[in-house]
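Customer escalation, tier 2.

The customer says the design service returned an amino acid string that "doesn't look like it belongs to this structure." They asked us to rerun it and document both sides in this ticket. The original structure tokens are below, unchanged.
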């Protein structure tokens, strides 16, 4: 099993910054992808950014140039630096770890952390 513990959410004014952290523990295999997803009220969960162990990154178009994902492989921790935040970034942000065991792919999720962008 894998456990993901997130931190760093909160209330911020438009144009402000926040940094989310997510620490993974448990049965973590070498080849995995970590990422951040978000879900706003009444909307489906969407991918924000993902990062592989070799630091290949992928971003949603809506956050490119504003958000930066990074990871510390030694600590099994992923970060999301969010700058120039907009009200439409308001959502619950979930950390994700995806790894394969043989032909099976497994997704693990954190409990979610609220990010609210409001004046």
């Amino acid at each position: 099993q894998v456990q993901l513990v997130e931190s760093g959410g909160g209330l911020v004014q438009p144009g402000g910054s926040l940094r989310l952290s997510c620490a993974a523990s448990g049965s973590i295999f070498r080849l995995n992808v970590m990422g951040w997803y978000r879900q706003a009220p009444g909307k489906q969960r969407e991918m924000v950014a993902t990062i592989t162990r070799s630091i290949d990154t992928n971003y949603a178009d809506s956050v490119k140039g504003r958000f930066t994902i990074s990871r510390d492989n030694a600590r099994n921790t992923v970060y999301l630096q969010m700058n120039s935040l907009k009200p439409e970034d308001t959502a619950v942000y979930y950390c994700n770890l995806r790894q394969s065991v043989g032909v099976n792919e497994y997704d693990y999720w954190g409990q979610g952390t609220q990010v609210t962008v409001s004046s």
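Tier 2 assessment: The sequence is consistent with the input. The chain has no helices and eleven strands. Residues 67 and 82 are 4 Å apart (CA to CA). Sent an explanation to the customer and offered a walkthrough call.
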